[in-house]
Amino acid sequence: MDTSAVNSTANIAGTTATTTGKSTLGKDDFLKLMLAQLQNQDPTQPVDNQAFVAQMAQFSSVEQLQNVNDQLGNLLLAQNSGNQMSFASMVGKDVLFNTDGVTLVPGQAAQVQASLADSADKVSAVITNASGKVVRTIQLGARQAGDLAVSWDGRDDDAQALPAGDYKIAVSAYKANGDKVGVTERSTGTVTGVRYENGAALLLVGGRKVPLSDVLEIDQHQATSTNAGA
C-alpha cells in the first residue's frame, strides 16, 4: 500500500484503534484504509493500477483468511460438543482400564486384575498408601501365565483395618532363577460420571478418575456380581 497515503490517514486509523481498542486490523478496517488512500491520494501521482490490483488481492486474502478462521472455530466448537455427548454416553457402562490403583471402601475388598506374561515361581503383591508407605505384602506363590485376580481385604500386615482412601497394589513375578516376569495390571468398574480437567475428559469409576487413554475395553453394564480372590 502507498506509504504517503497510509501516513495521510494515520490519524483516522489511530482514532479507530483508540476508540475500539483493537490491536489488529480486520477486513473492514483494511477496506476503510484503501478508501481513505484513494480519497487522499495526490492527483498528480495517482495510485498505480498494478499496485491497486495487488492491494485488492491482499484485501481478498485477508477476508478469506478471516472466513477460514471463523469456520475452524465453528468446527472446533462442534467437535467439542460432539465429544462431550460421546463421553456422556459412557456413563453406566463397564470399562476395563490400565491401573495399579484401588480405592478402599469400608467393608469391601479391593481388587486388581494382573496378567502374567509367563509362568512364575514367586508372585507377590505390595500395597502402599497415598504417601507411598508399604502397608501390606501378600505372597501369592507360584502362578501360571495369564490372568490373575488379586484381592485385598483392606488390612495391614498386623491385621488392622486401614482407613478408606486410595492405595496402590504393585504385583511382581519372578522365575526360580530370579528372572523377572512381565506383569500388566488392570481394573474394571462402572462409569458413574465424566469430569473435565484442563480440557481433558476423565471417567469417574469407583471413585477414581480414569483418563480415556487408559481405557482398554467398554461394555454395556450388566447387573451381575462376581467374587475373585487370591
Automatic annotation (TrEMBL):
According to its UniProt entry, this protein's organism is Anaeromyxobacter paludicola
Q: Which UniProt keywords apply?
A: Bacterial flagellum biogenesis
Ranges for domain FlgD Tudor-like come to: 84-215
Output this protein's name.
Basal-body rod modification protein FlgD
State what this protein does: Required for flagellar hook formation. May act as a scaffolding protein.
Domain FlgD/Vpr Ig-like, by residue range, is: 107-176
**Entry similarity comment:** Belongs to the FlgD family.
Short name of any one Pfam family annotated for the protein: FlgD_ig
Its domain of life reads Bacteria
Question: Which InterPro entries does the entry mention?
Answer: FlgD, FlgD/Vpr_Ig-like, FLgD_Tudor
